[in-house]
Amino acid sequence: MPRAGTRSESSDERAWAVPESLRPTLAEKYGPVYAGVEADRRIRALGVFATCGDRVTEHAIELGRIPLIGIVDYKTRRKERVDPEAFRALAARRTIQVYNPPGLLTEQLRAAVLKLLPEGGGLIVVDGEEDLGSLALVESLPNGATVLYGIPGEGVSFVWVDAIAKEHVRHLIGLMELRRLPKPA
């Protein structure tokens, strides 16, 4: 039993931090990148898909294609605010709020993806930064799904989920540094 004033392990949450040595690997593109009319055409043709990032999620909804799951933080390029109303159609299914600090992938974010899958999807709103949420999506979505994430100034990356993509993501997460974070109050 922990002494008074110390946190028990159960009051902490696991999170995976990106070590400096892994940053170049995570910056690589893992699927083709499309922009403009070609990106729009491909988004309209998708079957099951999920999005990570405010602009790509907003744009898919504008095209009349609501992702199964969208992960957003209501900002783009880490500062420009995005109107939450842009995600109303997706939020109507269900909205889960999670804490995910920059440079980390929290257990809370990974669990939110798993929770939404059997419930028909919805919106995950991140307090912090959503960038690594694409890993949680590839890890958990069914084979045959597509994960979209925006690459500022370039377009949209399309990652097809299959056994190879899932194994690659699990390998990357395994290379990350496991940390314990205090659960937010």
Q: What would you say this structure looks like, in words?
A:
The chain has 185 residues and is α/β, with parallel strands linked by helices. It has one domain (33-182). 31% of the residues lie in helices and 29% in strands. The chain has helices at residues 23-27, 36-44, 54-62, 88-91, 107-116, 133-140, 163-175; strands spanning 12-17, 33-34, 49-52, 69-72, 75-76, 80-81, 95-100, 104-106, 122-128, 146-151, 155-160, 177-182. A seven-stranded mixed beta sheet has the order 2-11-10-3-4-9-7, with helices on both faces. Strands 8-1-12 form a three-stranded antiparallel beta sheet. A two-stranded antiparallel ribbon has the order 5-6. β3 (49-52), α3 and β4 form a beta-alpha-beta unit. The two termini are 21 Å apart.
Number of helices: 7
The largest β sheet comes out as: 7 strands, mixed
Rg value: 16 Å
Q: Give the spatial strand order of the biggest sheet.
A: 2-11-10-3-4-9-7
The total count of strands amounts to 12
Query: What's the shape?
Result: globular
Work out the strand percent: 25-35%
Helix content: 25-40%
Residue stretches low in confidence (pLDDT < 50, at least 5 long) are: 1-9
Count of spatially separate domains: 1
State the order of secondary-structure elements, H for helix, E for strand.
EHEHEHEEEHEEHEHEEHE
Structural class: alpha/beta
- Give the overall pLDDT as a whole number: 90
